Amino acid sequence: xxxxxxxxxxxxxxxxxxxxxxxxxxxxxxxxxxxxxxxxxxxxxxxxxxxxxxxxxxxxxxxxxxxxxxxxxxxxxxxxxxxxxxxxxxxxxxxxxxxxxxxxxxxxxxxxxxxxxxxxxxxxxxxxxxxxxxxxxxxxxxxxxxxxxxxxxxxxxxxxxxxxxxxxxxxxxxxxxxxxxxxxxxxxxxxxxxxxxxxxxxxxxxxxxxxxxxxxxxxxxxxxxxxxxxxxxxxxxxxxxxxxxxxxxxx
Length: 251
Ligand SMILES: Nc1ncnc2c1ncn2[C@@H]1O[C@H](COP(=O)(O)OP(=O)(O)OP(=O)(O)O)[C@@H](O)[C@H]1O
Ligand SMILES: [Mg+2]
Prior knowledge:
Elements: E1 7-11, H1 20-31, E2 37-41, H2 47-51, E3 76-77, E4 83-86, H3 103-110, H4 113-116, E5 119-123, H5 130-136, E6 141-146, H6 150-170, E7 176-181, H7 189-202, H8 215-223, H9 235-250
Parallel strand pairs: 1-5, 1-6, 2-4, 2-5, 6-7
Antiparallel strand pairs: 3-4
Helix pairs in contact: 1-9
This protein binds adenosine-5'-triphosphate (ATP) and magnesium ion (MG).
Adenosine-5'-triphosphate (ATP) binds next to helix 1 and helix 8.
Protein backbone atom coordinates (compact mmCIF):
# COMPACT_ATOMS: atom_id res chain seq x y z
CA UNK A 1 0.00 0.00 0.00
CA UNK A 2 1.43 3.38 -0.98
CA UNK A 3 2.21 5.88 1.77
CA UNK A 4 0.74 8.79 -0.12
CA UNK A 5 -1.74 9.23 -2.93
CA UNK A 6 -0.15 8.37 -6.26
CA UNK A 7 1.45 11.33 -8.02
CA UNK A 8 2.02 10.95 -11.74
CA UNK A 9 4.53 13.16 -13.49
CA UNK A 10 4.71 13.24 -17.28
CA UNK A 11 7.92 14.45 -18.91
CA UNK A 12 7.17 15.75 -22.34
CA UNK A 13 8.28 17.95 -25.19
CA UNK A 14 7.53 17.48 -28.85
CA UNK A 15 11.01 18.80 -29.58
CA UNK A 16 13.52 15.99 -29.85
CA UNK A 17 16.72 15.82 -27.82
CA UNK A 18 15.49 18.10 -25.04
CA UNK A 19 16.53 15.79 -22.16
CA UNK A 20 13.09 14.26 -21.53
CA UNK A 21 14.55 10.81 -20.98
CA UNK A 22 17.51 12.06 -18.92
CA UNK A 23 15.03 13.97 -16.74
CA UNK A 24 12.55 11.08 -16.44
CA UNK A 25 15.22 8.55 -15.47
CA UNK A 26 16.84 10.76 -12.83
CA UNK A 27 13.56 12.04 -11.43
CA UNK A 28 12.25 8.47 -11.09
CA UNK A 29 15.50 7.27 -9.48
CA UNK A 30 15.63 10.17 -7.03
CA UNK A 31 11.97 9.68 -6.07
CA UNK A 32 12.69 5.98 -5.52
CA UNK A 33 14.84 6.98 -2.53
CA UNK A 34 11.65 7.95 -0.72
CA UNK A 35 8.88 5.84 -2.14
CA UNK A 36 7.85 3.19 -4.56
CA UNK A 37 8.15 4.39 -8.17
CA UNK A 38 6.85 3.18 -11.52
CA UNK A 39 8.70 4.47 -14.57
CA UNK A 40 6.74 4.09 -17.79
CA UNK A 41 8.79 4.21 -20.99
CA UNK A 42 6.27 5.35 -23.56
CA UNK A 43 8.90 6.11 -26.22
CA UNK A 44 9.52 3.13 -28.49
CA UNK A 45 13.16 4.21 -28.74
CA UNK A 46 13.39 2.64 -25.28
CA UNK A 47 16.06 4.97 -23.96
CA UNK A 48 14.55 5.24 -20.48
CA UNK A 49 14.51 1.43 -20.32
CA UNK A 50 18.21 1.38 -21.18
CA UNK A 51 18.88 4.10 -18.59
CA UNK A 52 17.68 1.89 -15.74
CA UNK A 53 19.46 -1.26 -16.81
CA UNK A 54 16.99 -2.97 -19.11
CA UNK A 55 16.21 -3.05 -22.84
CA UNK A 56 13.17 -2.15 -24.92
CA UNK A 57 10.97 -5.22 -25.08
CA UNK A 58 9.84 -7.22 -28.09
CA UNK A 59 6.42 -8.53 -27.13
CA UNK A 60 5.98 -7.57 -23.49
CA UNK A 61 6.53 -3.82 -23.44
CA UNK A 62 4.17 -1.21 -22.05
CA UNK A 63 2.65 -0.43 -25.45
CA UNK A 64 1.10 -3.91 -25.42
CA UNK A 65 -1.58 -2.45 -23.13
CA UNK A 66 -3.05 -1.13 -26.37
CA UNK A 67 -3.29 -4.71 -27.62
CA UNK A 68 -5.09 -5.97 -24.51
CA UNK A 69 -2.31 -6.77 -22.03
CA UNK A 70 -2.43 -5.58 -18.46
CA UNK A 71 0.01 -2.91 -17.37
CA UNK A 72 1.39 -4.95 -14.49
CA UNK A 73 2.43 -7.90 -16.66
CA UNK A 74 4.93 -5.58 -18.37
CA UNK A 75 6.64 -4.59 -15.08
CA UNK A 76 10.25 -5.53 -14.46
CA UNK A 77 12.68 -4.63 -11.67
CA UNK A 78 15.52 -2.15 -12.22
CA UNK A 79 18.88 -1.06 -10.81
CA UNK A 80 17.02 0.40 -7.82
CA UNK A 81 14.94 -1.66 -5.36
CA UNK A 82 12.08 0.81 -5.23
CA UNK A 83 11.97 1.45 -8.96
CA UNK A 84 9.93 -0.67 -11.35
CA UNK A 85 9.91 -0.10 -15.09
CA UNK A 86 7.27 -0.76 -17.69
CA UNK A 87 9.73 -0.88 -20.62
CA UNK A 88 9.03 0.33 -24.13
CA UNK A 89 7.72 -1.99 -26.82
CA UNK A 90 10.32 -1.59 -29.55
CA UNK A 91 8.16 -2.03 -32.65
CA UNK A 92 4.83 -0.54 -31.63
CA UNK A 93 3.45 1.88 -34.22
CA UNK A 94 0.93 4.27 -32.69
CA UNK A 95 -0.28 5.38 -36.12
CA UNK A 96 -1.64 1.93 -36.95
CA UNK A 97 -4.51 2.45 -34.51
CA UNK A 98 -7.47 4.75 -34.87
CA UNK A 99 -8.52 5.38 -31.29
CA UNK A 100 -6.35 4.66 -28.30
CA UNK A 101 -7.91 7.09 -25.87
CA UNK A 102 -8.29 6.25 -22.21
CA UNK A 103 -6.36 2.96 -22.23
CA UNK A 104 -3.64 3.92 -19.74
CA UNK A 105 -6.19 5.59 -17.46
CA UNK A 106 -8.30 2.46 -17.57
CA UNK A 107 -5.30 0.31 -16.62
CA UNK A 108 -4.38 2.65 -13.76
CA UNK A 109 -7.87 2.35 -12.32
CA UNK A 110 -8.45 -1.37 -12.88
CA UNK A 111 -5.02 -2.45 -11.69
CA UNK A 112 -5.05 -0.10 -8.71
CA UNK A 113 -1.68 1.38 -9.57
CA UNK A 114 -2.16 3.87 -6.73
CA UNK A 115 -2.16 1.01 -4.20
CA UNK A 116 1.30 -0.13 -5.23
CA UNK A 117 3.19 3.03 -6.13
CA UNK A 118 3.73 6.45 -4.59
CA UNK A 119 4.98 8.01 -7.81
CA UNK A 120 4.73 7.30 -11.49
CA UNK A 121 7.04 9.01 -13.99
CA UNK A 122 6.21 8.76 -17.69
CA UNK A 123 8.81 9.37 -20.40
CA UNK A 124 7.12 10.30 -23.66
CA UNK A 125 8.20 10.39 -27.31
CA UNK A 126 9.03 13.64 -29.12
CA UNK A 127 5.53 13.81 -30.64
CA UNK A 128 2.08 15.01 -29.62
CA UNK A 129 0.25 11.77 -30.29
CA UNK A 130 -2.03 9.23 -28.61
CA UNK A 131 0.81 8.15 -26.30
CA UNK A 132 1.19 11.64 -24.92
CA UNK A 133 -2.58 12.05 -24.70
CA UNK A 134 -2.88 8.79 -22.74
CA UNK A 135 -0.17 10.13 -20.40
CA UNK A 136 -1.90 13.47 -19.93
CA UNK A 137 -5.09 11.66 -18.93
CA UNK A 138 -3.34 10.34 -15.81
CA UNK A 139 -1.03 13.30 -15.16
CA UNK A 140 -0.89 15.28 -11.93
CA UNK A 141 2.03 17.29 -13.24
CA UNK A 142 3.80 17.82 -16.54
CA UNK A 143 7.46 18.80 -16.81
CA UNK A 144 8.68 20.28 -20.08
CA UNK A 145 12.46 20.22 -20.32
CA UNK A 146 13.93 22.52 -22.96
CA UNK A 147 17.33 23.60 -24.27
CA UNK A 148 17.57 27.40 -24.06
CA UNK A 149 17.74 28.15 -27.78
CA UNK A 150 15.24 30.25 -29.73
CA UNK A 151 13.37 27.28 -31.20
CA UNK A 152 13.56 25.51 -27.84
CA UNK A 153 11.58 28.38 -26.31
CA UNK A 154 9.13 28.42 -29.25
CA UNK A 155 8.56 24.70 -28.67
CA UNK A 156 7.80 25.29 -24.97
CA UNK A 157 5.09 27.79 -25.92
CA UNK A 158 3.60 25.32 -28.38
CA UNK A 159 3.67 22.51 -25.81
CA UNK A 160 2.08 24.57 -23.04
CA UNK A 161 -0.74 25.63 -25.35
CA UNK A 162 -1.28 22.10 -26.66
CA UNK A 163 -1.33 20.65 -23.13
CA UNK A 164 -3.93 23.11 -21.87
CA UNK A 165 -6.03 22.69 -25.00
CA UNK A 166 -5.95 18.92 -24.64
CA UNK A 167 -6.79 19.19 -20.93
CA UNK A 168 -9.86 21.31 -21.60
CA UNK A 169 -11.03 18.90 -24.33
CA UNK A 170 -10.65 15.96 -21.96
CA UNK A 171 -12.04 17.71 -18.93
CA UNK A 172 -8.92 16.61 -17.01
CA UNK A 173 -7.24 19.75 -15.70
CA UNK A 174 -3.51 19.41 -14.99
CA UNK A 175 -2.63 21.16 -11.77
CA UNK A 176 1.00 21.69 -12.56
CA UNK A 177 2.88 22.43 -15.72
CA UNK A 178 6.55 23.17 -15.05
CA UNK A 179 9.33 24.25 -17.38
CA UNK A 180 12.85 22.95 -16.87
CA UNK A 181 15.83 24.53 -18.65
CA UNK A 182 18.46 21.89 -19.44
CA UNK A 183 22.02 21.89 -20.78
CA UNK A 184 22.20 25.43 -19.42
CA UNK A 185 25.49 27.29 -19.65
CA UNK A 186 25.51 30.23 -17.20
CA UNK A 187 28.39 31.83 -19.11
CA UNK A 188 26.38 32.10 -22.32
CA UNK A 189 24.61 35.42 -22.68
CA UNK A 190 22.04 33.87 -25.02
CA UNK A 191 21.05 31.31 -22.38
CA UNK A 192 20.72 33.98 -19.69
CA UNK A 193 18.60 36.19 -21.90
CA UNK A 194 16.30 33.41 -23.08
CA UNK A 195 15.73 32.33 -19.51
CA UNK A 196 14.65 35.86 -18.58
CA UNK A 197 12.24 35.84 -21.52
CA UNK A 198 10.78 32.49 -20.52
CA UNK A 199 10.23 33.80 -16.97
CA UNK A 200 8.33 36.79 -18.29
CA UNK A 201 6.32 34.82 -20.87
CA UNK A 202 5.25 31.87 -18.72
CA UNK A 203 5.53 33.22 -15.16
CA UNK A 204 8.52 32.58 -12.93
CA UNK A 205 6.54 30.17 -10.75
CA UNK A 206 6.47 27.74 -13.70
CA UNK A 207 10.23 27.76 -14.20
CA UNK A 208 12.55 25.37 -12.36
CA UNK A 209 16.21 26.15 -11.65
CA UNK A 210 18.22 25.01 -14.68
CA UNK A 211 20.13 21.75 -15.13
CA UNK A 212 23.71 22.49 -16.23
CA UNK A 213 25.75 20.69 -18.85
CA UNK A 214 27.39 17.56 -17.48
CA UNK A 215 28.84 14.88 -19.73
CA UNK A 216 28.12 12.30 -17.01
CA UNK A 217 24.44 12.75 -17.85
CA UNK A 218 25.18 11.40 -21.32
CA UNK A 219 27.48 8.66 -20.04
CA UNK A 220 25.01 7.37 -17.46
CA UNK A 221 23.15 5.51 -20.23
CA UNK A 222 26.27 3.50 -21.07
CA UNK A 223 26.67 2.32 -17.47
CA UNK A 224 22.87 2.12 -16.89
CA UNK A 225 23.42 4.02 -13.65
CA UNK A 226 21.32 7.18 -13.32
CA UNK A 227 23.48 10.07 -12.14
CA UNK A 228 21.46 10.59 -8.94
CA UNK A 229 22.35 7.02 -7.89
CA UNK A 230 26.07 7.36 -8.55
CA UNK A 231 28.45 7.46 -5.58
CA UNK A 232 30.42 10.38 -6.96
CA UNK A 233 28.90 13.84 -6.45
CA UNK A 234 28.64 15.81 -9.64
CA UNK A 235 26.99 18.91 -11.04
CA UNK A 236 24.35 16.86 -12.88
CA UNK A 237 23.56 14.89 -9.73
CA UNK A 238 23.11 18.00 -7.57
CA UNK A 239 21.00 19.72 -10.24
CA UNK A 240 18.64 16.76 -10.63
CA UNK A 241 18.36 16.31 -6.86
CA UNK A 242 17.46 19.98 -6.44
CA UNK A 243 14.98 19.74 -9.30
CA UNK A 244 13.27 16.74 -7.65
CA UNK A 245 13.02 18.61 -4.32
CA UNK A 246 11.53 21.64 -6.06
CA UNK A 247 9.03 19.49 -7.96
CA UNK A 248 7.93 17.73 -4.76
CA UNK A 249 7.11 21.09 -3.21
CA UNK A 250 4.76 21.80 -6.11
CA UNK A 251 2.82 18.53 -6.28
N1 LIG B 1 22.45 18.33 -18.89
C1 LIG B 1 23.03 17.60 -19.86
N2 LIG B 1 24.36 17.72 -20.10
C2 LIG B 1 24.93 17.01 -21.11
N3 LIG B 1 24.29 16.15 -21.92
C3 LIG B 1 22.96 15.99 -21.72
C4 LIG B 1 22.28 16.69 -20.68
N4 LIG B 1 20.98 16.32 -20.72
C5 LIG B 1 20.86 15.44 -21.72
N5 LIG B 1 22.05 15.23 -22.32
C6 LIG B 1 22.29 14.39 -23.51
O1 LIG B 1 21.56 14.98 -24.58
C7 LIG B 1 20.99 13.99 -25.42
C8 LIG B 1 19.47 14.15 -25.46
O2 LIG B 1 18.94 13.83 -24.17
P1 LIG B 1 17.70 12.87 -24.00
O3 LIG B 1 17.87 11.61 -24.76
O4 LIG B 1 17.43 12.78 -22.55
O5 LIG B 1 16.61 13.78 -24.71
P2 LIG B 1 15.12 13.38 -25.16
O6 LIG B 1 14.33 14.63 -25.12
O7 LIG B 1 14.65 12.25 -24.36
O8 LIG B 1 15.36 12.92 -26.66
P3 LIG B 1 14.23 12.25 -27.61
O9 LIG B 1 13.44 13.41 -28.12
O10 LIG B 1 15.03 11.56 -28.66
O11 LIG B 1 13.43 11.32 -26.77
C9 LIG B 1 21.42 12.64 -24.87
O12 LIG B 1 22.57 12.20 -25.52
C10 LIG B 1 21.73 12.98 -23.40
O13 LIG B 1 22.65 12.08 -22.85
MG1 LIG C 1 13.79 10.47 -24.99
